[in-house]
Amino acid sequence: MLQTKPQTRFDYGHRVERVMAYIADHLDEDLSLDKLAEIACFSPYHFHRIYRSIAGETVADTVRRLRLHRAAGELARSAYPIERIARRAGYGSVEAFTRAFGSGHGEPPGAFRARFTPFQPFGTGDDIMIPVKVRQFDGVHLATVAHRGDYHEIGKAFDKLGVWAATRGLFDRPRRMIGIYYDDPESVPQAQLRSEAGLEVDPAMSLDDGIVLRHIPAGRVATIVHKGPYTGLEEVYRQLYCGWLPGSGEEASDQPAFEQYLNNPRDTPPSELLTEVNLPLRG
């Protein structure tokens, strides 16, 4: 982190946050360093170092990460040809895209897509249930950023939260990163889905910049740990709600489901990501 005065750090954070939001919303447009430096109101000579210091990755890393994340979503949730997806991700050939995608996701795009066929109902005898563990959750207070819309795009809220936390020195120790998901994407229009990106904080901490304190209370939860890209989490929820819950003898509580992210997508290949999906239970 650059050694700057607190107010200057906060100002730099706002400007870097503005750039990250622009990148996420304009992945198919001009994302040159000169253009992004102009958006941040930084000199192009210093912008890259300031961005990397606060964001924890280079601009090129951010663009690559977000384009490949979008590509994974398109492979899993659309019928777009792989050639089209490769071009949108910024690759000049399917071969280059396949190498980049495979190095992170652990398999080529075609094999990845094949795993996301339309869901089949339970009871066919072909389903492999993911282990579910009922445990006691200890509760947590979170600084949160709201996200409205496709759950697959909550990364924008986490990027904003990460910049806010970094400029306040909150990554001086490990803190839980948690996403809260309020709505069923099968029942609520995508544009109206409500979720929040959260970072563990002390409940007495003073929050600002629209950051809201949330409390997930202690209690019993049903937990599945998913290894792999976040795109695969829809299947985890299907198994938890449609496969496990009806025959478990348990009842869901009046609290939203939440996910705890056990490693960092910025330095972990998507194939190695660990996500703990939690369904709060009564009693």
Automatic annotation (TrEMBL):
Signal peptide boundaries: none
HTH araC/xylS-type domain segment(s): 17-115
InterPro entries named in the record: AraC_E-bd (IPR010499), GyrI-like (IPR029442), Homeodomain-like_sf (IPR009057), HTH_AraC (IPR018060), HTH_AraC-typ_CS (IPR018062), Reg_factor_effector_dom_sf (IPR011256), SmbC-like (IPR050908)
Gene3D superfamilies linked: Homeodomain-like (1.10.10.60), Regulatory factor, effector binding domain (3.20.80.10)
Pfam families, sorted: GyrI-like, HTH_18
Domain of life: Bacteria
UniProt keywords, alphabetically: DNA-binding, Transcription, Transcription regulation
Residue ranges of the region described as Disordered: 262-283
The protein, known as: AraC family transcriptional regulator
